[in-house]
Design a protein that fits this description.
It is found in: Cytoplasm. The chain has about 130 residues and is mostly helical. About 80% of the residues lie in helices and about 10% in strands. Strands 1-2 form a two-stranded antiparallel sheet.
């Protein structure tokens, strides 16, 4: 297990993390520290504990908002997927209907061709006799 030294509100902390996650952990700590620094600039020195609690709540607020957006996007994706499936089913139905009509037309053309052929042969037989 790896260890990383991070700085939060001017204090160094040794943190353990999985091997290969050192950069990620350092990045998260730096991001959290930016919240604390922002609150220090806005509210002044109001105490370490209050700053950390405020920064923690801000991070959780962002997480909740991101989860809400994710839920909204999932619902939209489900709606779009259903609409796409409905369109695909309608296209398949139209294709089947078109194939059936085309087959019917082909049978009618064959029937007409057979009738024309038969009439032609009858006419030839009458004129050749």
């Amino acid at each position: 297990m790896a260890e990383v030294s991070v700085e939060i509100n001017g204090r160094k902390f040794r943190m353990a993390c999985e091997d290969g996650q050192e950069t990620h952990l350092s990045s998260l700590a730096a991001r959290f520290n930016r919240y604390i620094e922002e609150y220090k600039e806005t509210f002044g020195e109001i105490g370490d504990n209050r700053l950390v609690v405020m920064a923690g709540i801000a991070v959780v607020d962002e997480l909740v908002e991101a989860e809400r957006k994710l839920d909204t996007l999932r619902a939209e994706l489900q709606t779009v997927t259903k609409a796409g499936n409905d369109v695909a089913a309608e296209a398949e139905s139209m294709e089947a209907t078109f194939a059936a009509k085309l087959s019917d037309v082909a049978r009618r053309i064959e029937s007409i061709a057979t009738a024309v052929d038969g009439a032609g042969q009858d006419a030839q037989a009458r004129s050749g006799s």
